[in-house]
Amino acid sequence: MYKAYIFDLYGTLVEIRTNENKPYLWTKMSELYASLGAAYGARDLKARFLALVMQEQAWGRGQTVSIQEKTGGRDPVTAATTGREDCLAEPDMRKVFRRLYLEKGVSCDGRKAQMTALFFRTLSRQHLCVYDGVRETLQELARRGKKRYLLSNAQSDFTRPELEMTGLSECFDGILLSSEEGCRKPSPVFFQRLLKRYGLHPAECLMVGNDETADIGGAWQVGMDSLYIHTATSPVCQGRYNPTYRVMDGDWRKVAAILCGQGS
What we know:
Blueprint: E1 4-7, E2 14-18, H1 23-35, H2 42-62, H3 67-71, H4 79-82, H5 94-102, H6 110-124, E3 125-130, H7 134-143, E4 147-152, H8 156-166, E5 174-177, H9 178-181, H10 188-197, E6 205-209, H11 212-221, E7 225-229, E8 245-247, H12 252-259
Parallel strand pairs: 1-4, 1-6, 4-5, 6-7, 7-8
Antiparallel strand pairs: 2-3
């Protein structure tokens, strides 16, 4: 039935826990910056980091258009239902790490900013694992000649290494990350970019994700079927959308049965 399967990453294929508030993180980050000539106290660094993140996010919100404009008035993931407009712009957090150097008069090229972001993520990450059954399911889909794509709201400097760590980087025929593309789910622009890039028709695709608005609502806007999987990190489900398939206990055996059974 479906020729291509499009997957969310965090909370759908992998479980991840991070803690960006622990003092140890900011102590080590301040030591890193100081060793490279940008002296910050741990508290000052955290405060400035959060302020710059807010600025980047505000810039992103300034680059928005409503979903109704993008879909010709075809509802329903609008500011009225999500509390915001469709964010077409996704800030790249590498810019934040770079600005922290520049504000101290220290030069910073892309490589230094990237390595700083990687150090930050390594320190803040507490747990990362692939859900049982995910690899086997992706392999089985490939064996059946199905295409597999990743569509994730994610920071490239964090996620590309984590895909390598989990062994998932080679499991997809295409990977689109929001920070690289400049837009994010549930924006129809993000979905349409994947469809156009790989010559896909929405009626032949199934979106699999654990976020009702970003994944299920986003897929609905472009006429794509969806499978909602509820996991421990899923946002509260409001029941706004009716996915084609639903797995409410996070059991990937049930997901596999759908993808490799009636959904294939």
